[in-house]
């Protein structure tokens, strides 16, 4: 699988922001009107970028500071012009997530427009 290096950079910055509990980093990789939606063990969760950034920031100590497991794997990437679909697997907060990102290239920068998530384990 070949992945666009700019898309890969966006995905890696996304994961670094989670690991560091960095709200501004989260905001920098999402389109301002993006939605974050998926299922956690307690049911369906729907968030705005600000909701999600606040949740990430509230994780203290950060996963990096706590020495939590690190795992990020890009499973697939399908680019069509200035849109892309990316599926990834990541370890976060003691769970393994499968994320599906709908991405857009806006003003020359790849951004996550929607994130669907599922807890794998």
Short overview:
With 121 residues, this protein is an alpha+beta fold. It has 4 helices and 6 strands; from the N terminus they run H-H-E-E-H-H-E-E-E-E.
Describe the structure.
The protein is α+β, with helices and mostly antiparallel strands and 121 residues long. The protein has helices spanning 5-19, 23-29, 49-57, 63-66; strands at 30-40, 43-48, 72-80, 83-92, 95-106, 109-119. The protein contains 4 helices and 6 strands. It has a single domain, classed as Nuclear Transport Factor 2, Chain: A (Roll), CATH 3.10.450.50. 26% of the residues are buried. The chain is 29% helix and 49% strand.
Helices and strands, with pairings:
Blueprint: H1 5-19, H2 23-29, E1 30-40, E2 43-48, H3 49-57, H4 63-66, E3 72-80, E4 83-92, E5 95-106, E6 109-119
The biggest sheet, with number of strands, parallel, antiparallel or mixed sense and barrel status, is: 6 strands, mixed
Computed over alpha carbons, the radius of gyration is 13 Å
What is the CATH topology assignment?
Nuclear Transport Factor 2, Chain: A
Fraction of residues in H or I helices: 25-40%
- Order of strands across the widest beta sheet? 2-1-6-5-4-3
Poorly predicted parts: none
- How many individual helices? 4
| Total count of strands | 6
- What does the oligomeric state look like here? single chain
Number of domains: 1
Given helix and strand content, the structural type is: alpha+beta
Main CATH class: Alpha Beta
